[in-house]
Design brief:
Layout (H helix, E strand, L loop, with lengths): L2 H11 L2 E2 H11 L9 H11 L3 E5 L4 E4 L1 H12 L10 H8 L2 H39 L4 H45 L1
Helix pairs in contact: 1-2, 1-3, 1-4, 2-3, 6-7
Length: 186
């Protein structure tokens, strides 16, 4: 998922200013940690490709074009590549010594806490989105579908962070066992 495709999707979903689109990008895809200037950088590039158009130069309001919508639909239907697993912690574990194991254990526990906080934040964003959509009262089945898909997306993000937190807690337990066992044989 690139910031450019997400900016395109947001502009196609609902016209908005650069600030509007950036805010929605940050709200919906917080876990992706896209740059704070992603909309500012990508909207002119998308306009040059004919995927969005500037509706009003004074307000800087953009909307998706027919070509942009077609590109977005093509992207949604395409199969994503298998993600590479390049977690820094795996390299650290592989090359750690017994003397570094306690420091590594502290890092792993800190990651578990950070992942749990990210999960809690995603859960809160999901609840905010549900409340916002309820207040907005979707007008037709298309808006209802969009609302439900947004909640499904945010629920999956929450579950991903939950899984990461559980994995890190289990990893910490195993590292602690290893440290105890080898510290006693020293």
């Amino acid at each position: 998922m690139t910031p450019q495709m997400m900016v395109l999707g947001l502009a196609c979903e609902e016209a908005g200013t650069v600030a509007d689109i950036q805010r929605r990008l940050s709200d919906l895809f917080a876990a992706a940690a896209f740059p704070k200037n992603a909309a500012h950088t990508n909207l002119p590039q998308l306009a040059a490709k004919g995927h969005v158009r500037l509706l009003d130069e004074r307000t800087g309001r953009y909307e998706g074009t027919r070509a942009g919508i077609e590109r977005l639909r093509e992207w949604v239907r395409s199969r994503p590549p298998v993600p590479a697993m390049r977690e820094t912690i795996h390299g650290k574990i592989e090359f750690a010594t017994l003397d570094e194991l306690l420091e590594l254990l502290i890092l792993v526990r800190a990651e578990a806490k950070a992942f749990q906080i990210a999960s809690d934040d995603a859960h809160e964003r999901m609840l905010v989105e549900q409340r916002r959509r309820l207040r907005a009262r979707p007008k037709g089945w298309g808006e209802q579908l969009d609302a439900e898909l947004t909640v499904v997306h945010l629920t999956d993000v929450k579950l991903m962070w939950d899984d990461m937190a559980v994995r890190r807690r289990k990893l910490a337990e195993r590292l602690e066992q290893i440290h105890r066992r080898y510290s006693q044989t020293r």
